[in-house]
Amino acid sequence: MSWAFLRDLLSGVNKYSTRIGRIWVAVVFIFRLLVYIAAAENIWKYEHDEFECSIKQPGCENVCFDHFFPVSHIRLWALQLIVVSTPSLLVVFHVAYRESREKRHNQKLYRRPGEIDGGLLCTYLISLILKIGFEAVFLVLFYKLYNGFNVPRLVKCDMRPCPNTVDCYISKPTEKMIFLYFLVATSCLCIALNLSELSYLICKYSKKGYVKRYVRKHQ
User: Where is the Connexin N-terminal domain (predicted)?
Assistant: First the structure.
């Protein structure tokens, strides 16, 4: 698939993000999207063809491969990238709504349509919470589907139609495990960045609201 849409989306969100948000965009673009396109996709490209079992019973290899790899790592990673980036559309749509509202009324309704305040602040916070939730869900999904974050060299399979327990070998297990650890590390880094940005915005606007109430009270 073409990743141009995701690249354009991240570039568009970058205009309305805080400094921490811009770091998150850079991490997603450089350490996840570019790594996926340049290297990771090729490592899992022929994973089914290179999966070998010690017996050539018809259907045995397919059943064992499906059992140990119910969903391809790389396809799940691609789905994670898309889903985690999607909440950013909420912010883009909200800014577009503000701009169209100003055009419709033919007057300046906001100081800057892309400034994070009021309703846009709520939308931004919701997008951060969704990103954190999606990242956590995919990490748990990876862990549950593959019984941890390891890629074994040898797996034993006794699924039908295999006549007995057979040994099956996974191609390039060390290389795949390194990229899997990299995937987990970048996901954890993105969660940390999103939590930091969420805390920063809540503290910043809570403090601003407190100062306004304090000023009004003494006036």
Answer: 42-75
DSSP string, 54-104: S---TTHHHHHHHHH-SS-HHHHHHHHHHHHHTTHHHHHHHHHHHHHHHHH
SS3 state at 117: coil
Each residue's pLDDT, cut to its tens digit, for the chain (219 residues) gives 455 666 656 666 667 778 888 888 888 888 887 787 777 777 777 777 778 888 777 788 888 888 888 888 888 888 888 888 888 888 888 888 877 877 787 777 666 666 777 778 888 899 999 999 999 999 998 888 887 788 888 888 887 888 888 888 888 888 888 888 888 899 999 999 999 999 988 888 787 766 666 676 666
Classify domain 3-48+73-147+172-218 at the CATH topology level: de novo design (two linked rop proteins) (1.20.1440)
State how far the Cα of 88 lies from the Cα of 82, in Å rounded to an integer.
11
Beta-carbon contacts of residue 21 (< 8 Å; ≥ 6 apart): 13, 14, 197
Q: Cis peptide leading into 70, omega within 30 of 0?
A: no
As a residue count, the chain comes to 219
Chain centroid, CA 157 distance in Å: 32
Domain boundaries, the chain: 3-48+73-147+172-218
User: Angle CA(133)–CA(135)–CA(138) in degrees, nearest 5?
Assistant: 105
CB atoms within 10 A of CB 187: 20
